[in-house]
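SCAN box domain-containing protein, pasting as requested.
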Amino acid sequence: MPILRDTGATLDLICKKYVKPSMIINETVWIRTPLEETAVCLPMAEVELECVFGHVITKAAVLRDSLDQGKYLLGNKTAALLEEVKKNKEIQVYMVNAVETRSQKKLTEESKQDLNMSEETIPESNEKE
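Structure tokens follow.
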């Protein structure tokens, strides 16, 4: 399948007909495309690509078949990682596409605050009586 660089996309996109059920991972992403009026929830798939950099494994959002253009759309995150590999061939790149929602960020901040608070309330036991 040809790879098309999409400078307007953050994530990689692939059509469902090119994805086997075993490639689907237990992740979803909400995106809004120029073709949709509202945001849609799309499943993520682990995709293997053969390109000038060799064999690349990355994650891509899976589009419905009606949007098929016969191309894999390479987003900005993967393209930036591939450019870094091109500059420094000794590094190993592990692709991670992650989106942190507001609720996830809030939970992370609350757990950090709880940890800081628990450290303050634990008395020092190093002191001798």
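Note for the archive: The CA atoms of residues 32 and 81 lie 23 Å apart.
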